[in-house]
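Page 42, continued from yesterday. The earlier attempt failed because a stray header line got pasted into the input along with the sequence. Redoing it now with the clean sequence only.
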Amino acid sequence: MQWARAEDLDWGELEVPACQADLDAYRLNVLKARSLKQIHQLMEAKWYVKQWDGHAPSDLRDPLLGATWLRLISDLAAEKLERAQLEEMLKSCRFDFREMIDPASSRCSVSDLLEYFSPVQLSALGEPQRNWLSSSWASPPRVSETHSSNGKPTRRLNNDDRAAILEWFVLRHVNDQLDHNHLEWFEGKNAYEAIAA
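This time it went through. C-alpha cells are written below.
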C-alpha cells in the first residue's frame, strides 16, 4: 500500500475525486458490486499479513468495507451464514470492525448485533455472552457513539434485547445435550425469559 496523488491515477470515465467524500462514494460503489467471497478476500488483507511476517494485528480501519460487509451478511439467511463460515472469517479478518460484531470479543457491540441480525442469524455467527443478560448497558459503546459519549455506552439493554439474546442462545444450542452451564441461562424469574418463551 502506498500514497498516490489522485490526479496521477486513471479514473476512466469518472471525474478525479476532489475530496475524501468523492473517493468514498466511488469506493462504496465498487464494494457494493463485490460478492461476499471477494469482500472476505479484502478483509483478510494478505498484503498486510505479509508485512507482519504472518502475525498481523487486526488494527486496519476501513468503515466503508465494514459497512458493506455488514450489509451483505445481514441480508443472508441463517443457513447461508453458516455456510459462509463467518466465525472463521472473523478470525482471519485484519480490520478493527470485526471486533464490533464478533461475539467472542470484549469490544463486541451488542447493539449492532441486535440491530442488524435476527436471533436465528446470530446463532450462526457465534456464541452469545451470558453476562449480557445481567448488563444494563449495551456495552461497549458503538463506534458512532464513542467520541460523543467519552467512551461510555449511551444505550441501555431492555428486556426485548435480553429476550433476543436468550433466544439466540437457545437456537445456538437447540441440538446440544444440556449441561449445568446451559441451565445457568435460565433463572425462571426474569421478564425477558417470559418474552423469549
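Notes: Residues 82 and 124 are 5 Å apart (CA to CA).
Reminder to self: strip header lines before submitting.
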